[in-house]
């Protein structure tokens, strides 16, 4: 309805896409066997670039046939249509199952183990309690021993995303000739 609303929604979308990209890399790594882990992460990253390219081409088609709003409607409809598939087929994180221990944790862990070719567990491992004062979460990532690695990974991920933004938002040579 307004440029401000568009900017806010684009910002929200950017946060969502950033979260999905970071999470999907972790999921690809976590659920791939050691033998196929590198390929799984590479395919996930390649899939994003390919999806962005195909999405851009599809957006051009939607724009020419139904206007700019159709691009957003299509994106929203597809997103909501995929949610049940994700809930049905994407397994819960192993770390989540071990930390939160829902009632069906052992069965779900063994189902994951079977899919990954690992032996089943007869019981859940003992809970490891961190000593008081131990860093967790973001503070652990920014602790002196991890700070350099964490900041380098963040920088590299930012540069990859920045490269995607430049690639997909740069004017084409044809557009530059018009101006």
Topology:
Elements: H1 3-31, H2 37-66, H3 68-89, H4 94-100, H5 105-115, H6 137-141, H7 147-169, H8 173-178
Tell me the number of helical segments per DSSP (H or I, 4 or more residues long): 8
pLDDT < 50 stretches: none
Largest sheet, strands/sense/barrel: none
Helix content: over 70%
Relative strand content:
under 5%
Overall spatial form: globular
Mean pLDDT: 83
Characteristic terms for this protein:
8 helices; mainly alpha; 179 residues; 74% helix; 0% strand
Model description:
With 179 residues, this protein is mostly helical. The protein contains eight helices and no strands.
Briefly characterize the structure.
The protein has 179 residues and is mostly helical. 74% of the residues lie in helices and 0% in strands.
